[in-house]
Each structure stands twice: as structure tokens, then as C-alpha cells.
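To: structure subgroup
Subject: Chain for Friday's discussion

All,

I'm putting the inputs and outputs inline so they're searchable in the archive.
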Amino acid sequence: KSPKFMVPHSPHVSPESRVVLLVPIYNPGSGWRDFLSALQQQTRQPDQVVVLDSESTDGSAQAAQALGYTVQTVQRSQFNHGGTRQAGIDQHATGADLAIFLTQDAILARTDALQQLLSAFDEPKVAATYGRQLPHANATPIAAHARIFNYPAQSHTVTLQDKAAKGLKTCFFSNSFAAYRLSALQQAGGFAADLILGEDMHLAARLLLAGHAIRYQASAHVYHSHNYTLREELARYFDTGVLHARQTWLMDTFGSAGSEGLKFMTSEIRYLWQNAPHLLPQAFVRSFVKLAGFKLGRSSLALPLAINQQLSMHKGYWA
């Protein structure tokens, strides 16, 4: 059954609003320097920065501490996309009004990126917002297109009423660069801790059911993309299928993604034809691999544990 919640009053955001920024990390490597530099240059600084560190060994936690940021150690074996983020809120966001989440590989692209993201809360009904993701400089054409397709130049706001037209896409959301009104987040029950991935979409869906709005803030930019191998694509879509198999209320409530996959493929073919036609055969193979991974994930309840763990990107989920 899908959860239902009461709707609290959502006040406007003021410059005095207390903001906490939480960043889960695990050995972010050389890009961490760029991450910290971009964060330090923001015109709107968070009141507190909390790094949720899964026992990194590359000096990244120490670099964050040197800048005065709070570092919370998370046992690597205990990391959970939803549970770790919720624990960060529970431990460090007391008294805060808003929580921003970034992933370690999302580099703020403008000095006003955080300010632009937080301005979405000027709409009283908005409970959560996510920003525009631009491809990294080293993104392949296939990776670049995925960002262009999913993160357009126009902002938009969605409510539950949009599900008839958008289906499951209504609750599309990304914690790589997002912010939440903490009163709404906590009232909706916070992040779920029993998910393989998709904790952001899962919470967005519950916020929509509670009568809130979700805002895509296209004026807030980060650089964030992945050059996935075919094996990684298989694993990622397998895990997405696992989510769908175990959280059937999402589809029952919002419907399927409908023609979204076909729209993506059509857009990708057009983009590659214009920019990298030699990659078209690879794109067709990737589409097949994604579909196969998703269908295997949907069937994961009937598969042996060892097979599920082998196919999955998030192997700790099966431990």
C-alpha cells in the first residue's frame, strides 16, 4: 500500500533559514579537491557542512576536516543510501530548516549554485528541489546525452496531479544535487533505509502523496555524469529493476514510465547521429543491456541470492 500523510504549512525561506549540507563520500580521489574548492566559493554558504565518510583511505576526510567541516565516520559495511542520509539528518540537522545533499562527484558549476537551488523554496508548496546536472568535461557523448535529456534548461514544478500525464516520471529526483524542507521530510517519514537505490525518488513520491510540490531548479548547476561500462549499465538497471520489484506501490500509484524509454532512445539516436554517429551501434547494445538488466532485476525475487549479488552494483544490499 502507498503511504499517505497530512500536509503541514510550509513557510517561505528567509535568508535566516538554517541550512545543513550533507555529503556521503568514499575515496572520492582527485576530484575531491575540485569539489571542496567549488563549495568554498559559493555565495550562499551552508551553516554546517557534514561529510559522511565510509572509511575513506585517500585523505579526503582529513581535507574536509582541515576546512572546518564535520566528518562523521560511517562503517563501510553499514552504508545505505537512505539510512546513511537519514542518520546524518538525525544527528546533525537539529534546528536546521533545510538540508542540501550532494554526492562526492557532483561539482558545483557556478558560485551561486546553492543560492539558486535554495531559491526554489520561495514557493511555499515546494518540499524538495533538485538542480540541473551538466556533463563533466570528460563525459562521453552517450553520457552527455543522458544529462541533456534528463536535465533540461527549463525549470518546472510537479504535484500529484501531474501523474496522469507524466506517470512514474512525476517523482523523478536526484540526490546528487538536491535540497529538502526538513519539516516536510521528517513529517513524511524521512529516507527509507531498506532500498537498494532510489531513496530520492521514493521520498519524492511520498512528498507528492502528502500534497507537496517538487521543483526542478534548472538555474542551479552542477557537473555530474558517469561514463558507465556495459557491465556497470547492466548492474545499474538490474538494481533499478530490484527497486521496482520490491516497491510495487510506486507503479501502482504513479503508473509506469510509459513511453519514456522510447523517448530517450529516439533522442539519443538523434543526438549521436549529429555528434558521434560512430557510437550508434554501441548505443543500441547499451539499450539491450539496460533492458536485460531491468528485467532480471524485476525477476530478482525468484533468483538465488548469489546471482542477485553478482548482478548488482550495490552488493552490500544482499549481505
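Points worth raising on Friday:
The CA atoms of residues 115 and 265 lie 34 Å apart.
The chain has a mean pLDDT of 92.

D.
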